[in-house]
Design brief:
This protein is an alpha/beta fold. The protein has a single domain, classed as Vaccinia Virus protein VP39 (Rossmann fold, 3-Layer(aba) Sandwich). The chain is about 40% helix and about 25% strand. It contains 8 helices and 8 strands; from the N terminus they run ααβαβαβαβαβααβββ. Strand 2, helix 4 and strand 3 form a beta-alpha-beta unit. Helix 2 crosses helix 3, helix 5 runs parallel beside helix 6 and helix 6 crosses helix 8. The mean pLDDT is about 90.
C-alpha cells in the first residue's frame, strides 16, 4: 500500500472515537446524512430488503441510516479503528450490519455482482486510485443495480469552501482532511464510470450551509456533488 494511502487511513482512524459526535469532527456528515440517505433511497426505488454495500463506510453513519430503512448492509473500510467504532455503535443501535476490514478490490474478487446497491460516498477523494475503486464498485453491483458516488469537484470554489472555509476558517473538519490535487471533476468521475461499464443517470450538486447546518441538492456540481450510475441489466 502506498505510504500516502496509509496516511489517509491513519487520519480517519484518529477520528474514530469522535465519529458519532454530531458536533465533532464529522459534524458536516451528520448534517447531510438524511439528505444523502434520501437521495439513494429515492433514486434506487427504495432500500427495504436491498443488498447494499457501503464502500469506505467509516464508522457507519450512512450504513446505519440505510439499515434503519430496511436495507441489508455490508460496510467495508481499511481503517481498523474506524470499523471497530462502527461495530460498537451498530451493536448499541441494535442494527445487524456486516462490517469488514477489506479492500474493494479483494471483495470484488470474491463477491462480484452480489449487491443491488453499491455506495462510495465521501471517499473517492481519499484514495490513491479512484478509477480502480469505481471499477470495483461496478464489479460488485449486480446487473441492473445502482451505484452511487459523492465527492468534491476540483475547482477554485471548492478549494475555497471545502478546504479553506471548512478546514481553516470555520474548523468544521480537521486541517488536512482534503488535498486539492485529489479532488475529482464530474467529467473525470463520469469517465471512470463509463470505463467500468456503468451508465451515469444523474449528477447533482450539494450545497451545505455550515451556519444553519442545512443542506440541499439540485445545484450545479461546483463543490460537492452526487453521482448515480446504473449497471446494465445484460452486463456480464
Amino acid at each position: 500500500m502506498p505510504s500516502n494511502q496509509q496516511a489517509e487511513l491513519d487520519k480517519f482512524d484518529a477520528m474514530a472515537a469522535r465519529w458519532w459526535d454530531a458536533d465533532g469532527d464529522m459534524r458536516p456528515l451528520h448534517d447531510i446524512n438524511p439528505l444523502r440517505t434520501g437521495y439513494i433511497e429515492r433514486r434506487a426505488n427504495g432500500l427495504k430488503d436491498k443488498r447494499v454495500l457501503d464502500v469506505g463506510c467509516g464508522a457507519g453513519l450512512l450504513s446505519e441510516a440505510m439499515a434503519a430503512r430496511g436495507a441489508r448492509v455490508t460496510g467495508i473500510d481499511l481503517a481498523m479503528q474506524t470499523i471497530g467504532a462502527a461495530k460498537r455503535h451498530a451493536e448499541q443501535s441494535g442494527l445487524a450490519i456486516d462490517y469488514r476490514v477489506v479492500s474493494s478490490r479483494d471483495l470484488a474478487a470474491e463477491a462480484a455482482g452480489s449487491f443491488d446497491i453499491v455506495v462510495g460516498f465521501e471517499m473517492l477523494e481519499h484514495v490513491d486510485r479512484p478509477a480502480h475503486v469505481v471499477e470495483d464498485c461496478a464489479r460488485l453491483v449486480a446487473p441492473g443495480g445502482d451505484a452511487f458516488f459523492s465527492t468534491i469537484n476540483r475547482t477554485p470554489l471548492a478549494a475555497a469552501l471545502a478546504i479553506g472555509g471548512a478546514e481553516y476558517v470555520l474548523r468544521l473538519l480537521p486541517r488536512g482532511t482534503h488535498e486539492y490535487a485529489k479532488l475529482i471533476k464530474p467529467s473525470e468521475l463520469s469517465a471512470y464510470c463509463r470505463h467500468a461499464g456503468l451508465e451515469v443517470a444523474d449528477i447533482t450538486g450539494l450545497r451545505y450551509n455550515p451556519l444553519t447546518r442545512g443542506a440541499t441538492l439540485g445545484h450545479r456540481p461546483d463543490v460537492n456533488y452526487f453521482v448515480h450510475a446504473r449497471r446494465a441489466v445484460d452486463a456480464s
